[in-house]
Specification:
This protein is α/β, with parallel strands linked by helices and 345 residues long. It has eleven helices and twelve strands. Strands 7-8-9-6-5-4-3-2-1-10-11-12 form a twelve-stranded mixed beta sheet. A hairpin with a 4-residue loop joins strand 10 and strand 11. Helix 2 crosses helix 10 and helix 4 (115-125) packs parallel to helix 6 (151-163). The two termini are 34 Å apart. Mean pLDDT is 92; it is low at 1-7.
């Protein structure tokens, strides 16, 4: 098979969507215990021999970019900064070339603990930007959600990311009624002052079952109404239909510059119809959706001697079966069989 024939493979599903955005979980381990992600006591981490080796991760990155049309890669966890070889993996990913003969766009979703010590090296390796998970700027609320008193380290990480040029820094915050929703204005003010872009996420059923209910989820319309009490918002034109966040422009105020704020309304205004993401878990499973209850194993075929082309076809076949939507509103909705930290965002 020629190079051009190989490049004709793509991650298309039966609904006409094509995956160009790869999310790679590098570990299921995390140094926080956020309530919407995992139980406070943590989880049983994957044994080392069940997680992909560095060589296996690199091989799947190469297949995704050079054979299947991947153009963007986001590294996730757990907490990806805990992967000792992270910088080497990013450097390798940066050396790849897409069908347009350019490096893939590389980003990292992180809780930012220790980012202040690694931001410069990550940028030097080829990382383009970071998404930082931070659900409150109130130390007590942050500690309540994450079960760790580490908010100061997050601020240091955000500052270091900006200094290293890992911009725009995007701050991800899961809105939870009665937990952190009252502090969303303070979080937006901080993001604007820090030159970051806040993304408020509707709470999704991806953690312990008792942690989610529709009644405790703060919907997009309520988020915007609350923010509008203090900030002048205007809806921004939507230029990328596959982007999960809808953006609003924020006018400058007395105590903050202008900027943008996004809301990811995965529950009330799902964007499944334009989803362009494919996911690899830390143990080498392909997931076509965060909420999928079926996975396709690439790890064992790879270890059994499968060729690149065979792995590419397995991956493409898995994506062909992607469902039209996550089905949260369906009467027969079934919770994913893995927690968020085990899947990768």
């Amino acid at each position: 098979m020629t190079t051009e024939q190989i490049r004709q493979l793509e991650l298309r599903d039966r609904w006409g969507r094509v995956a160009r955005d790869l999310r790679v979980s590098l570990t299921d381990r995390c140094n926080l215990r956020c309530s919407y992600c995992m139980p406070p006591e943590g989880l049983d981490w994957l044994p080392t021999d069940q997680t992909l080796s560095d060589a296996e991760v690199k091989r799947l990155l190469r297949i995704g970019v050079t054979m299947l049309g991947i153009e963007e890669i986001r590294f996730t966890g757990g907490e990806p900064l805990l992967r000792r070889s992270l910088i080497d993996i990013i450097s390798y990913a940066s050396s790849l070339r897409t069908a347009l003969r350019r490096p893939p766009e590389l980003s990292l979703t992180t809780n930012a603990l220790g980012l202040d010590k690694k931001a410069h090296a990550l940028a030097q390796a080829g990382l383009n930007r970071v998404n930082v998970s931070m659900d409150s700027v109130d130390p007590q609320v942050y500690k309540h959600i994450s079960h760790r008193d580490r908010l100061h380290d997050v601020f240091l990480g955000i500052d270091a990311a900006r200094a290293a040029g890992l911009t725009p820094v995007k701050i991800n915050a899961v809105a939870m009624r009665g937990v952190n929703d009252a502090g969303l204005k303070d979080l937006l003010r901080y993001a604007l002052q820090a030159g970051a872009q806040l993304r408020i996420i509707e709470h999704m059923p991806l953690g312990p079952r008792e942690s989610w209910s529709r009644a405790n989820m703060v919907p997009q319309d309520e988020i915007l109404e609350f923010l509008s009490e203090e900030f002048e918002l205007s809806e921004a034109p939507r230029t990328d239909l596959s982007a999960p966040a809808q953006l609003w422009n924020v006018a400058p105020g007395e105590d903050h510059p202008g900027g943008t704020v996004g809301v990811i309304a995965s529950v009330t205004k799902p964007f499944c119809g334009t989803c362009d993401r494919t996911r690899i878990t830390a143990d080498g499973q392909i997931r076509s959706c965060l909420f999928a209850n079926e996975e396709t194993d690439l790890r064992e075929p790879m270890r059994a001697g499968a060729t690149d082309l065979e792995l590419a076809h397995l991956w493409a076949d898995a994506m062909w079966e992607k469902t039209p939507g996550h089905g949260i509103d369906d009467p027969g909705f079934v919770y994913p069989d893995r927690y968020m930290s085990e899947i990768g965002g």
